[in-house]
Design brief:
Number of helices: 11
Distance between the termini: 45 Å
Order of helices and strands: HEHEHHEHEHEHHEHEEHH
Strand order of the largest sheet: 1-2-3-4-5-6-7-8
Radius of gyration: 17 Å
Structural class: alpha/beta
Number of domains: 1
Low-confidence stretches: none
Helix content: 25-40%
Number of strands: 8
Strand content: 5-15%
CATH class: Alpha Beta
Mean pLDDT: 96
Length: 266
């Protein structure tokens, strides 16, 4: 049986149909294979590997070479899921640097789409990459690469001015060619407004059920992170094995029983 690969067009169609997008991180071949088999739509090779794989206290130390190393292990296992790879800290300070590193993630790491953090400051970069055929996912709200500038891992968008700026940034990124946007640690009402205003899919992490999809860090979802954030849940419970836990997460996102109100910010 031929398996259809998830693409950016697939994600757009899922948004239009009201079908929830399921995303999960993976950093190695074994987990990538299981995650793909359980029906996850997007597998993220995230710079979160700096914390859950390398033991750092932030994503800042992660390099392009590290993302490529892990993406090369993940991508060959994915028969259906789209593979997204993060552009790590300081790897996209200008459009030319960004497109050079994006090309490496796609050529060497075999990623299908790249993700970068930031709003208005990234418009030229997003425009440059998408004009040259690079699919791009934006990332707004809590942007972990700038955690030191933000002063910690804090909810973003509760202040009216910040919320207005985030909406403006999201629409501008869409106009620049972004194919999707991750919303991290954003109040539910703002996430709902963004999801309704945008034509591209929103993928939430700590942004409520109203987003077009959800993403979690695998190690948080199976309960082995040392400091799991409030917006996650341990699906490796009630005697489940890992494949069943991943399937439970997929089902919970699709039937909108995850996240619960307790895992949202208001």
């Amino acid at each position: 049986m031929t398996i259809s690969r998830v693409t950016v067009k697939t994600l757009r169609k899922m948004k239009q149909a009201g079908d929830k997008i399921v995303s999960l991180t993976a950093y190695d071949a074994s987990f990538a294979r299981v995650i793909d088999e359980q029906g996850v739509d997007v597998i993220l090779v995230g710079d979160s590997l700096g914390m859950v794989m390398q033991g750092h206290d932030s994503t800042v130390p992660v390099t392009v070479d590290a993302i490529i190393y892990h993406a090369k292990a993940v991508a060959p296992q994915c028969k259906r899921a789209m593979v997204m790879a993060d552009l790590p800290f300081m790897s996209y300070t200008n459009p030319n640097q960004a497109i050079s590193n994006a090309a490496r993630l796609m050529q060497e790491g075999q990623a299908h789409i790249v993700k970068l953090e930031g709003g208005e400051a990234q418009l030229d970069t997003v425009r440059h990459m998408t004009r040259h055929g690079v699919p791009v996912c934006a990332h707004l709200g809590l942007t972990p690469q700038t955690v030191h500038k933000l002063g910690g891992y804090r909810v973003q968008g509760r202040e009216e001015a910040v919320a207005k700026q985030m909406l403006s940034d999201a629409l501008a990124l869409q106009d620049a060619g972004a194919d999707a946007v991750v919303l991290e640690c954003v109040p539910v009402d703002l996430a709902e407004k963004l999801s309704k205003e945008l034509e591209i899919p929103t993928i939430g992490i700590g942004a409520g059920r109203v987003c077009d999809g959800q993403v979690l860090v695998l190690q948080d979802m199976i309960g082995i992170s040392s400091l799991a954030p409030r917006f996650t849940a341990n699906f490796l419970r009630d005697g489940r094995n890992i494949p069943d836990a991943i399937k439970a997460y997929v089902d919970a996102v699709r039937d909108q029983t995850f996240p619960t109100d307790e895992q949202c910010f208001f």
